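Progress against Task 2.4 (sequence-to-structure conversion) is shown through the following example record, which the project officer requested during the mid-term review.
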Amino acid sequence: MAKCVLTILVQCLGLAVMPLEAGFRSPESLVRNVYAYYGQGSPGFSAGLPHDSDTARRFFDSRLQTSWASSKGLPYDFLVQGTSWKLGAVSTTVLRKQYDKTYVAVAFSNNGRAVTLNFIVVNGPDGWVITDVESPHDSLRMFLAQHRN
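Structure tokens generated for the chain above:
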């Protein structure tokens, strides 16, 4: 009995020291976690998605990480399509799965204005990450390239 308890204890301790990894378990979870940063709650979760390397590594694929982390002074926040935000309910729908990419439609209101975006996500070795976000007029990748510092 003591040997069994010891084995369980060692396994639990092993799980506790595992490093945090990038990515999320599902495309919907990824999108929900992005918009958690745009709430009306605590200051750490109401200033928008941070433009730092840790956040970039957690949310974006390797090709988009550098662009996200180095972007400062953008004219507006692409993920909410505005300079300020008061978001309504965020709905997500998986539109299609095509090869290694999954397209997730996102709809919400920002200050009473309807916003729709398509997140293109991939399931990498560490979980789901964003490879691009498309608005009706632009994409996040093009937006960041256009406003490079």
